[in-house]
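Sequence, please.
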């Protein structure tokens, strides 16, 4: 009788120990599944955040002409929470014939506030390039003329690129024709021996530096 009681007690203890082990294993497995699911859900989120931050990163660029002979290029680059749009133009013909030879400026915007930019940045930059071309003589001159992508018509105002007037620089020169005119005028009003000196003074008087 005593042996039966002892055996029953040992069997009961063994059964209880097995229940404890099974319960502990189930909890560990549950924690492992939860951690795995959390890691899997966090990975795509991190990827989306990384892609979103890189949409305007790197060097985005293009080119466009202005009707007066200027050939322009533009480059977009992240600067803090804004994007800087740098524009540089040059007219080699004006270096010979006279006129504006170089033009440069910077535009700033926060395109990330435009939903279209977030969904399709490639199309956004194509539209920015077309918008710059439409501005023509207003490029780097008119701060009221915003550079707008068509997909961002309903976006906040700061989604459009605005000219920083302090960055606008225009260079010009008289060219070879201007110097020829000075020489011709000098020969008409001065004797041939004094023509060179007269031409020099005429160029000084008509120079923008005087």
């Amino acid at each position: 009788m005593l042996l039966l009681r002892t055996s029953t007690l040992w069997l009961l203890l063994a059964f209880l120990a097995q229940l404890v082990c099974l319960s502990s294993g189930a909890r560990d497995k549950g924690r492992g599944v939860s951690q795995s699911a959390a890691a899997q859900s966090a990975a795509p989120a991190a990827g989306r955040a990384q892609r979103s931050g890189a949409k305007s990163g790197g060097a985005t660029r293009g080119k466009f002409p202005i009707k007066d002979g200027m050939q322009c290029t533009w480059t977009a680059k992240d600067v803090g929470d804004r994007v800087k749009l740098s524009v540089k133009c040059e007219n080699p013909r004006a270096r010979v014939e006279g006129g504006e030879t170089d033009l440069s400026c910077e535009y700033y915007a926060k395109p990330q506030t435009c939903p279209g930019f977030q969904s399709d940045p490639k199309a956004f930059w194509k539209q920015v390039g077309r918008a710059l071309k439409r501005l023509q003589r207003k490029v780097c001159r008119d701060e009221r003329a915003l550079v707008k992508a068509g997909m961002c018509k309903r976006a906040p105002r700061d989604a459009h690129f605005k000219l920083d007037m302090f960055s606008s620089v225009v260079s010009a020169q008289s060219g070879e024709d201007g110097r020829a005119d000075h020489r011709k005028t000098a020969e008409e009003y001065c004797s041939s021996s004094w023509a060179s000196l007269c031409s020099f003074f005429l160029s000084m008087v008509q120079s923008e530096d005087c």
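The helical segments are 2-54, 92-97, 115-119, 121-135, 175-189, 195-206.
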